[in-house]
């Protein structure tokens, strides 16, 4: 099919650094202005850290690429000032349906309870995501975004790295204290540093097509095993904004990728699925999925985020979402280290925490891909037995794996302070904060809006809150009808989700993760946990 | 569950020390073991080979769920692997 016209075009501009006799020196250089690099740049800039952001292209929009963005990612983007436009532009969904042949096997609801600002998921073309992030980045001081600046070489030193960059005006050099590689699966930084990217490749090929059509179908994820229109294989369908639909068809290990990409072949397959051919092809690609990661995401002063560090299959929407969550995990740590408020060793916790997240994502993604595309006749029999039992037995329904959708990872990390009190529920240390609706006067507010991206103590008001001398925001919440705090847990969501009793406190990290919790929050306890969460424990 | 990179290792069956750490109960649990065996055999009567295999697959999943314990399941799988290829498994253990 014909090359698509790019949707968004940006201008290369010559930087004064290109005229410098010696390489200009910067604190942080981010390579790659995709969703991950842009989110990281915005987060750092909001924390007062200037960054240079390099991208080898000057346009976006050749394909929809990543389309599913999870609640946790939307909460990150809220803090970066782009949550509202993302949700307004995207289509919101939370339900999925799984079919076997033409029978509905089961439905799932990813967010059955209320009291959350953000939905379970939005679908939004990656080019819209990037364009909104570029707009936000341009509005912030401190982000020097350089289009058509292609990193062609990197030499790492103990205290930084030297980059060689090609531009339309020729090459130039930059020196950086920290280089953050957000340059995707084919990362030049990773290749030039000879970092091994090891894992598993799956044999099956999948056709990914975005089509434009008007259809009165509900906004939900639909997955078929062995559908009548594509026998013996799987199919996936997702709605995107602007009447664009994502369709994903399993082709098997022996498909001829070039032939399968031919418009007449694609159209015939999709017409069989949809029962009509009133659609336009927007984007077509044939993939083989891989699950792999680099061993350490931190290599001296070079840090890898997103697909440059780890790659998963798309079942579960764990690629883009984990990349944005990498960026949020790194941003506050790097900002503290650069402003001498935390030891450089804090960066090692990024590798530990996001390495755990990557392993978790790879494990889920591998299990899903193996279920959808079994490796042997025996595996296929077990899979088919699961599908055959599912209408009759709940346990089998729970084993049907068409993708386990991305949720916030939980970290087993030395930055957490282990519980010293008895908790039956709530949000444990190492887990992300839960949203809840609170009341202030006659107004309803979301907890995720109230908490700023700084260390915060959520305090269930009973008596006076602990008088903290450390730089920790205090959010006091009245759990009863008493007059002691302007914020009230009128609907009891905070009490229920945090198992909050009067006097208890949750210390949140700047990324909204729980660092510690106390039944009786004291200055000593909270400040010790605060030190630990900044890598001083 | 099953992890291709780390398949369950066959246990050296008969090692008396294992009796204290194994959770899988390999003692005879049926008062009439012949009747139990017979039930499973009869379920396969009249089925073509491929249908028999499908039945086995469904039965394995149903029984695994009934066990509901990953440790026991892992030990049961290891014992099954040892029954399939005892020599090969012994060489790698």
Q: Which structural class is indicated by helix and strand composition of chain A?
A: alpha+beta
Distance between the termini of chain B: 20 Å
Q: What low-confidence regions of chain A span 5 or more consecutive residues with pLDDT below 50?
A: none
Classified in CATH, the superfamily of the largest domain in chain A is FAD/NAD(P)-binding domain
Number of beta strands of chain B:
0
Proportion of β residues of chain A? Answer: 25-35%
Strand content of chain B: under 5%
**Oligomeric status of the shown chains?**
heterodimer
Mean pLDDT of chain A: 94
> Order of helices and strands of chain B, N to C?
HHHH
Mean pLDDT of chain B: 82
Separation of the first and last Cα atoms of chain A: 57 Å
Uncertain runs of chain B are 89-93
What number of structural domains do the residues of chain B give? 1
Q: Using only CA atoms, what is the Rg of chain A?
A: 24 Å
Largest β sheet strand count, sense and barrel closure of chain A: 8 strands, mixed
The tally of helices of chain A reads 14
Task: List strands and helices in order, with pairings.
The complex is a heterodimer of chains A (537) and B (93).
Chain A: E1 8-9, E2 24-31, H1 35-46, E3 51-54, E4 59-60, E5 68-70, H2 71-79, H3 83-89, E6 91-93, E7 95-100, E8 103-109, E9 121-123, H4 126-139, E10 143-146, E11 150-157, E12 160-166, E13 172-181, H5 188-192, E14 198-212, E15 221-225, E16 234-240, E17 244-252, H6 257-260, H7 263-274, E18 280-293, E19 298-299, E20 302-304, E21 310-311, H8 319-338, H9 346-372, H10 377-389, H11 394-399, E22 437-440, E23 443-446, H12 447-450, E24 456-461, E25 473-478, E26 487-488, H13 493-498, E27 505-508, E28 514-518, H14 523-533
Parallel strand pairs in A: 2-3, 2-13, 3-10, 7-15, 13-20, 24-25, 25-26
Antiparallel strand pairs in A: 1-4, 5-9, 6-9, 7-8, 11-12, 12-13, 14-17, 14-18, 15-16, 16-17, 18-21, 19-20, 22-23, 22-26, 24-27, 27-28
Chain B: H1 33-44, H2 49-67, H3 70-84, H4 86-92
Helix pairs in contact in B: 3-4
